[in-house]
Amino acid sequence: MVHFETEAHGLTMDLSEIEARLGVIASAVGDAEVNVGSRGRLPHRVAVIKLTPLGNPNDFAEITVSAGGWLSIEVPGGFSHNTLVELSDTDEVLRSLDQFLEVGIAYVHGSRTREVSKLHVPHVVVRTASGDVRLELAIRDQLMRLFRLRS
């Protein structure tokens, strides 16, 4: 059994449980290639699920759960959405993971639009049954775009 361990908080999370949940979800996803696994070394180890639409290998949604409790979804173009969860509450981690998986599945099935803010910074809105989720560029990338537009 593999565990996430964080020295800062002394918390332990069962990586095999997260990977098992990802595997169950992966088997239920249609019309997409699904890869489940982990990468990195402690304390930077992450559980990963990558969803890729069939027929479009350059498009994907990658969801990661880090040893520090960060859940992240990233899509092409550098757009992402991140949240921090309490690792000692396995139910909260799994609930949040299910929400991120819902976003990833909706993304690869095309339930998304690319939009531009009033400041001309692009973002992606993914539409799910639970509501819309906005995937944004990293703040550094947003600022770089703003300054390029003004020069």
CA-CA gap between termini: 54 Å
How many helical elements? 3
Judged by helices, strands and strand pairing, the structural class is alpha+beta
Helix content: 25-40%
User: In this structure, how is the largest beta sheet organized?
Assistant: 5 strands, antiparallel
Strand runs, count: 10
Mean pLDDT: 81
At a glance:
The protein is of the alpha+beta class.
Write the SSE topology.
Layout: E1 3-6, E2 11-14, H1 15-28, E3 32-39, E4 46-53, E5 61-66, E6 70-75, E7 79-84, H2 90-108, E8 112-116, E9 122-128, E10 131-136, H3 139-150
Antiparallel strand pairs: 1-2, 3-4, 4-5, 5-6, 6-7, 8-9, 9-10
Write a structural description.
With 151 residues, this protein is of the alpha+beta class. The chain has one domain (3-110). It contains three helices and ten strands; from the N terminus they run E-E-H-E-E-E-E-E-H-E-E-E-H. The chain has a five-stranded antiparallel sheet, covered by helices on one side. A three-stranded antiparallel sheet has the order 8-9-10, with helices on one face. A two-stranded antiparallel sheet has the order 1-2. It is globular, with a radius of gyration of 16 Å. The termini are far apart.
